[in-house]
Here is the input.
Amino acid sequence: MLRMYVARAYPGRKILAIQELAPDTGATRGSTTKVAGYGQPMRIVLDSETGAPLELVWRVTSSNDFGHDRRSDRAALTIQEFDDFRQMPRHVQALDLGVVTAEGDLHSIHDSDELYLVTTYAPGTVYAEDLRRIATTGVAGASDLARLTALATYLDALHTPLGDPTVRYQRAIRDLVGSGEGIFGIVDGYPADVPGASGTRLRGIEEACATWRWRLRGHGARLVRSHGDFHPFNIVFTGDSELTLLDASRGACGDPADDVTALAVNFVLFALGAPDAWPEGLGVLWHRWWAHAQRSDPGLLETAPPFFAWRALVVANPRFYPNLDGRQRDRLLSLAEEYLEELTVDPHRAEELFT
Here is the structure.
């Protein structure tokens, strides 16, 4: 593999030596010896027509527990290193950036800018249109209940237990609280002086959620395959039960409460602007959704509060939903705060928002 790369990138040169570099190659060891790093570097010595050998370091980021357990993490780190090395004075030079194919070939992407993704197209109607219609008519009909059942059945099949639960579950909870798309990042994304979401209030929710990271620690057995962003704009229906999902994320694994709350919060959101649609419409979907989720996962209600708070913070953020007024935002965040304080999700608490 390396010989083929050298022949292509440095034609005419031959490899004189390849040496694996350990994290700590110092002569003096003892208590300061470093035994772990974030990569697997190899020193490559090439011959030269001028007499002075050319020395390179080839590295691949290794999988570990420090946020590099996914291929996407390692790709991001490698690209970041390539960009950072070139900006730093007196730093080793970043000469190339590439990918290793499944066949073991090396392909350079050093001249790339942004990455792209090509997917198939999903015809149909996003589920958000159903919720808008119910908000207008005030009634959830038989077809709406059928689609809700289809969504619940889909999650039942999706949420299968996964291996290596400790590291992956800890990662899911860490990302829930501290990632850029998680609670910390969403809170940082709020503009100043948002009606119903003062800085003091957001700080209180953030701090309450941070304590949940330790409350959920040790619950690795709850790790399942998950969608990661199961909201109405990522669900496309072509029939009563035929659906296609968009934009799976977050490593496609986590706590079942993630997917359940991602959809549940939208029943409240769409009803805040149409409270008359709650009793026989969106409220019906809300209660049926939670009832099914609890039957499928008896421990879900006690796990769900920080996930619900996260989703509430997202939809209450005016950068995502600018038409939500201060009163509506206050009601939604109040529900999230109650769940965090009571250490469980009581679906009947939502009735207080519409009475």
The beta strands are 15-20, 42-46, 54-58, 98-100, 106-108, 125-126, 224-225, 235-237, 243-245, 253-254. The chain has two domains: 2-108, 125-354. The domain at 125-354 is CATH 3.90.1200 (Aminoglycoside 3'-phosphotransferase; Chain: A, domain 2). The chain has a mean pLDDT of 91.
